[in-house]
Design goal:
disordered N terminus, disordered C terminus
């Protein structure tokens, strides 16, 4: 089940109506404080971008796991092992907090991460924004991976926060993988598939996979007027700031990406991230920091 802190934050809706390659390695950062984000893939981009918007002076460490994604089909033990490894790989950057920007990894790894790293390094998980969607009124649809739509975890969230609201889980088959590949036609086809399987009359749509927020504008276009999309990056960003004792300050000096890790290996900001608005912003600020450090 989600933490009480993040569940409280999610009562407030977070509604969603080609770059360049630069190196990002330890030793090039200029920020005095930073936050690490861990995920199997690109789902972390939206969460890093939300925090960067609220506190642009925080350095970002982005830890993806391309060797082992996706996490959905893996056993809970395997997911826990992998997310622990990703989090440990960020520690040389001395993060002030670590955000687990993956619902599956939060379910299976958050407790183990907190047991190992807290209180020295706060760990913040993610949870689908079912509570604010239910408060806004149903019927509610939850788009998620096939594994999540049939999970006890999702049923528990619905029972806890939307028991009195008509709720429909919808498997958005292939959408996370299409987003990861950057294939625009495949993304649109997967969105159309899920939209066709979303019952008529749905008023609220919860994005149950952190990848989906990267194409929220295209999801809104596919569903048409009258459907509000709920996602959690801003809520998670605000909770992260609370955990490290900072208030939002969008006017703070610009920092950017301090490091990129690919299955624990130092990597780069790939130009492919420019396919998504959140990635474009991180690429832009990463390029600016690289220029300043050379």
């Amino acid at each position: 089940m989600p933490s009480e802190e993040l569940s409280a934050e999610l009562r407030t809706e977070d509604r969603c109506p080609a770059g360049s390659v630069v190196e990002a390695t330890p030793g090039t950062h200029r920020s005095s404080r930073r936050v690490a984000f861990v995920d199997s893939g690109l789902g972390l981009l939206g969460y890093a971008d939300a925090l960067h918007t609220l506190r642009p002076d925080l350095g970002l460490v982005l830890a993806l796991d391309p060797d082992n994604m996706p996490y959905g089909p893996r056993t809970p033990e395997d997911v826990q092992r992998l997310i622990l490894a990703s989090a440990r790989a960020t520690l040389p950057y001395a993060p002030d907090a670590i955000v687990v920007a993956c619902n599956t990894a939060s379910v299976h790894g958050l407790e183990a991460l907190r047991a190992e790293l807290e209180p020295a390094v706060p760990v913040v998980g993610t949870v689908p924004a079912i509570r604010p969607a239910a408060v806004a009124g149903g019927p509610v649809a939850v788009w998620a991976t096939a594994a999540t739509t049939s999970s006890d975890y999702l049923r528990g969230l619905v029972d806890a926060f939307a028991a009195d609201v008509e709720t429909y889980p919808v498997a958005a088959l292939g959408l996370a993988e299409a987003i990861e590949s950057g294939d625009q036609d495949d993304i649109d086809a997967c969105i159309a598939y899920a939209a066709q399987r979303t019952p008529a009359g749905v008023r609220s749509l919860v994005l149950g996979c952190t990848h989906y927020g990267l194409v929220a504008d295209r999801i809104v276009a596919a569903l048409g007027d009258g459907v509000t999309v709920f996602d959690s990056p801003v809520a998670v960003a605000r909770q992260t700031l609370r955990r490290i004792g900072l208030a939002p300050d969008a006017s703070a000096p610009q920092a950017g990406v301090d490091g990129v890790l690919l299955s624990g290996r130092p990597g780069e900001l790939p130009a492919s991230w420019g396919a998504f608005p959140a990635g474009q912003r991180l690429l832009r600020d990463g390029a600016r920091r690289h220029t300043l450090s050379t």
